[in-house]
Amino acid sequence: MPRQTANKNWKEMLATPAFYLLILMFAMGAFSGLMIASNASLIGQSMFGLSASAAAAYVSLYSLSNTSGRVFWGAVSDRIGQIRAVIIIYSAIIFAFVLLVSVNPVWAFAVGVVTLGLCFGGVMGVFPGLVMDNFGPANQGVNYGIVFIGFSSAAFVAPKVTASLAAANNGDFTKAFYVAIAVVLIRLGLSLVYAQRKTAASLAAEIAK
Hints:
mainly alpha; 86% helix
């Protein structure tokens, strides 16, 4: 029988290291998705030579991928575990940005948009379960609402950073993509720390039985 997570209220949640790992992971996980969501059309036009109407179609493709990603990664996390799914999501985001900065044909933009959309949806789909897994279901509404501050922070920062870097480089988003890659690498490291902590906690619980 799986070990049940003790319910924690928001005050108890704030006293745990897991909360600070999760809110940072959430903020950094949302950063790249929000970067593309707010600039997909401009990226397509300025870096891949798309017309305004064609770029708008890619915005729709990104939105569709985002929606699909919530279902797809939710199913994946049910099979392999939430944190393993998060680590794969972050690795896929790195692949997508490397593709965007190194390959110029339009197909690279299409693959990048679909991958980043799926992964953004995955972040949004997996993190509610991570919060419940750590702090229990009883106070999920309040606890997840507080962790969601990480997303709100990313929504404030990511579009501004992206727009300012693009403006400083004549509409070229390459440097913004490098920033996104750096952010993903940091959050991938945080995810590995989180996974190690969860493994150690599970082992300690088994020994204590």
